[in-house]
Design brief:
Chain B contains 11 helices and 12 strands. Chain B is α/β, with parallel strands linked by helices and 325 residues long. Chain C has one domain: MetI-like fold (Orthogonal Bundle). Chain C has 11 helices and no strands. Chain C is elongated, with a radius of gyration of 22 Å. Classes of the chains: A alpha/beta (260), B alpha/beta (325), C mainly alpha (276). Chains in contact: A-B, A-C.
Chain lengths: 260, 325, 276
């Protein structure tokens, strides 16, 4: 990574609006419910930007929009200066490997009918498959025996590691982490967080982290946005946010994070 | 004064070639008006323990050990066989449970109020008008405003947090002496979690309950319990009162968990426990924790550590426990 | 999941279904070896003979051997049923997959088409097609298939709807895989069990419809036989010429019940709640 890139945004989201259709009584009128209202942020190369908020606040919708699974009502999403919303589907598919998601639900993240080896090999070019899978496994701290297993034979932590390895197989620049450790046990969560921190350094990754768990966000994030009811309340570097929350809601979150 | 004591409880499934133990040597006592936290990682057998205590295990699970229920006059009902007819009578009236998937434990076809009234009817002989009053009181107690309206709503009309509370009201409707909550907060985010736990605490005082809180969140256990049982791989590895366990854990696993939590609370990156949690079907010779334990000796690798009492009401399953003074 | 090898035997409907279908299959397979008579050769002097040592199941009006007609008729009935089920499942699966995955106007059009086609009773529509066209086995197969794919399409569509938002499908899209790969490699293998169950049930439905058509004289045409047409041969005096009606009826019954039992058994077998 060179110095000049560091100060450039890898992802730039400008006044993003997302709405979902809802069923109206009788079903005649088309009603919509706003999920994301006028959200703008920039993520710079190599940093970890976190969005914190309660479930249902719209934070996952932002990830869905970046991945192109949800069409925003308005706004722009610039990835390395290209607006993802204007790309043809062919160009979008070419760009997709650059942005990889890691979802909360690790139990559903791997195709239950495929062996781990096939899952990892699937996105790799043929001639590189064997050497690359070994490297990928090593980078997430797993041994080769696992290649012959089916997903249901793995523990939660192992599954999440395979999800990471699969995402890394296409050499992404940006990882979208949607509650990556929330449903894991604490001791496993800590291992995954540690792995994320080291991968970010080694592979020069940029993270967009979405979580409601402030104690995990604290470990990873450089800058944090607090989101409520579809809107960003504030955006600050982590230390400033913790010491000097501008918004009363932020203060609540910090205080209510249970400490004995 | 005790209300429930459990001695050497075990649950296993019998296969033609082997027995798989889901729980082994679980012992603890629950005192009147106290909260016991049962803590462990997913798959360690916490939920099996709950199901065992409320008698919801499938018939092919074999059980062993003793459950002692203490009545108000301190007489003991000793249950050694789960087919015991007294066991069924104890459930509901003595002990009730809030399930992990609370919204799923409410019948979607009936109005919330009716479901609570049904439970009230089952456990009381009052007239139905009083039942309705009581149901509305219960809904108010669990912190829902406009109880009258909620009484007439169907479960799908409620939000997730609200149905969580209705499930709690249903559990309380049988006037239990022990309330067991299986991961009640795992689907809630931090603010809602705190509110729910505060509510549990308040209800416990108001209704004179003893509480068993099953959780994988150590902060929750430390903050809200009087004593703690730590389960690892189906074994109850340490049982003690919460303050002492937090000050001086005896089992290396308890110690490691506490270290992680302390580091997180102080916004430091914790040192993870090496290795992975074994699955219950794996049979590990010796102490189940030894592959991950830095203190492991040959003894740990070969023989299973039986529960030893380090002091009164402090059990630990470890050959080489940490200093606790 | 291989801890319970005895579970398959516990599944009684699957087991008895396999036995019934296995027996009928053996009958169809080994039949030609057992009989010396050609199933189409007539011998009017031998008309309507009761079962004897030379004609094990008697003869029909034209003196044709009923045993060999049951064997060859059964082969035709099975072929028609299996081929048209295969075509129907193929059409249903592909339309269901794309309908659910693409959504939008394609989904709307396909699903309304399904509704419209389901509104016609299958037997009468197929009857009409065969009545208007020259009756041939090919036409019969296609007519049956084209009016049987709708249930499969509906099942596939709803299954895909429940899978397409799962994390592994989303991840596959994010990795840049194309739609065919996602549909056939990531979604299809995970929805196969309900499709297999309903295909097996569809076979028995189609056997019933085909027998009905042949009984009405519109399915398989003489000199070829089918179980339905043999049943028809015995309809003037079902009790007097019982060797025409009873064995054919029994074979239809066994096959239909057998496939239904297999379908029910598979449903139980695939049920995820069953495993520990």
């Amino acid at each position: 990574m060179n110095y000049t890139r560091q100060h450039q945004p890898i992802l730039e989201v400008n006044s993003l609006h997302i709405e979902y259709p809802i069923n109206s009584p009788g079903g005649f009128r088309r009603l919509t419910k706003p999920a994301v209202i006028d959200v703008s942020f920039k993520i710079f190369f190599g940093e970890c930007f976190a969005i914190v908020g309660e479930s249902g606040c719209g934070k996952s919708s932002i990830i869905e929009a970046i991945l192109g699974f949800v069409r925003p009502k308005s706004g722009t999403i610039l990835f390395e200066k290209q607006n993802l919303l204007n790309l043809s589907s062919k160009n979008l598919r070419k760009l997709r490997p650059k942005i990889q998601p890691v979802f909360q639900d690790y139990n559903q993240a791997l195709n239950p009918r495929m062996r781990i080896g096939d899952i990892l090999r699937e996105a790799l070019p043929n001639h590189l498959q064997d050497s690359q899978t070994d490297q990928l496994l090593a980078s997430v701290g797993l041994s080769r025996e696992i290649l012959n297993y089916f997903p249901h034979q793995l523990s939660g932590g192992q599954k999440q590691r395979i999800v990471l390895a699969r995402a890394l197989s296409v050499k992404p620049a940006l990882l979208l982490l949607d509650e990556p450790v929330t449903s894991q046990d604490l001791s496993v969560a800590v291992q995954i967080v540690e792995l994320l921190i080291s991968l970010r350094e080694i592979k020069h990754l940029t993270f967009l982290l979405v979580s409601h768990n402030l104690s995990i966000v604290q470990l990873l994030a450089d800058r944090v946005a607090v989101m409520k009811n579809g809107q960003f309340l504030e955006q600050q570097p982590l230390a400033q946010l913790l010491n000097n929350p501008r918004h009363i809601y932020t203060k609540n979150i910090i205080d209510q994070t249970i400490t004995p | 004064m005790n209300i429930l004591s459990v001695e050497y409880l075990s649950v296993h499934i019998h296969y033609p070639d082997k027995n798989i133990y889901l729980l082994r040597d679980i012992s603890f006592t629950l005192k009147r008006g106290e909260t016991l936290a049962i803590i462990g990682e997913s798959g360690c057998g916490k939920s099996t323990l709950c199901k065992m205590i409320v008698g919801l295990l499938p018939p092919h699970f074999q059980t062993g050990g003793t459950l002692n229920f203490f009545k108000n006059d301190n007489t003991v009902i000793k249950i050694t066989n789960r087919e015991d007819p007294r066991f069924k009578n104890l459930r509901g009236s003595n002990i009730s449970m809030v399930f992990q998937d609370a919204p799923g434990s409410i019948n979607p076809l009936f109005k919330c109020g009716k479901q609570i009234v049904d439970v009230l009817k089952e456990h009381a002989s009052d007239s139905s008008s009083q039942n309705k009053q009581q149901a509305i009181q219960l809904i108010e107690q669990v912190g829902l405003s406009d109880a009258e309206a909620v009484f007439n709503k169907y479960p799908h009309q409620l939000s997730g947090g609200m149905s969580q509370r209705i499930a709690l009201a249903l559990a309380l409707a049988s006037h239990p002496r022990i309330l067991m909550a299986d991961e009640p907060t795992s689907s809630l985010d931090s603010i809602a979690k705190k509110q729910y736990l505060d509510l549990l605490q308040e209800l416990k005082k108001k209704n004179n309950l003893s509480l068993i809180l099953v959780t994988h969140d150590l902060n929750e256990a430390l903050g809200f319990s009087d004593s703690m049982l730590v389960i690892y791989n189906g074994h109850g590895i340490e049982y003690r009162n919460t303050t002492d366990i937090q000050r001086a854990p005896a089992h290396p696993y308890t110690n490691a968990l506490l270290d992680i939590q302390t580091a997180l609370n102080q916004n430091r990156l914790p040192r993870p426990i090496p290795g992975a949690t074994p699955s219950i079907t794996q049979s590990i010779p010796g102490c189940p924790y030894h592959p991950r334990c830095q203190r492991a000796s040959d003894l740990c690798r070969n023989t299973f550590p039986l529960p030893t009492a380090l002091s009164e009401s402090h059990f630990v399953c470890c050959h080489r426990p940490l200093e606790t003074n | 999941m291989k801890i319970f090898p005895f579970k398959t035997v516990k599944n009684r409907s699957l087991f008895s279904g396999h036995v019934a279908i296995g027996l009928v299959f053996l009958f169809l397979l080994l039949g030609p070896i057992l009989t010396l008579h050609d199933h189409t050769s007539q011998d009017l002097s031998d008309s309507l003979q009761a079962p004897s040592s030379s004609h094990w199941m008697g003869t029909d009006y034209y003196g044709r051997d009923v045993f060999s007609r049951l064997v060859y008729g059964g082969r035709i009935t099975w072929t028609v049923a299996i081929l048209s089920t295969f075509i129907a499942v193929l059409i249903g699966t592909v339309t269901g997959l794309f309908s659910a995955y693409w959504g939008g106007w394609f989904d709307l059009v396909v699903m309304r088409l399904v509704d419209v086609m389901l509104a016609f009773p299958r037997l009468f529509v197929v009857l009409l097609i065969i009545g208007l066209g020259a009756s041939s086995i090919n036409l019969l197969i296609w007519a049956l298939a084209l009016f049987s794919w709708m249930e499969i399409a509906r099942i596939v569509r709803s299954e895909v709807m429940s899978k397409k938002n799962l994390a592994y499908v989303k991840s596959a899209r994010a990795l840049g895989f194309g739609t065919p790969r996602i549909l056939f490699k990531h979604i299809l293998p995970n929805i196969l069990s309900p499709v297999i169950v309903s295909s097996v049930l569809l076979i028995s439905t189609i056997i019933l419809v085909e027998s009905g058509l042949s009984f009405l004289g519109l399915g398989i045409q003489a000199p070829n036989a089918s179980w339905g047409s043999i049943l028809n041969d015995g309809k003037i005096d079902p009790l007097g010429t019982w060797w025409l009606s009873v064995p054919a009826g029994f074979l239809i019954l066994t096959t239909v019940v057998g496939f239904n039992l297999i379908g029910d058994g598979l449903q139980k077998q695939f049920d995820p709640k069953k495993s520990l």
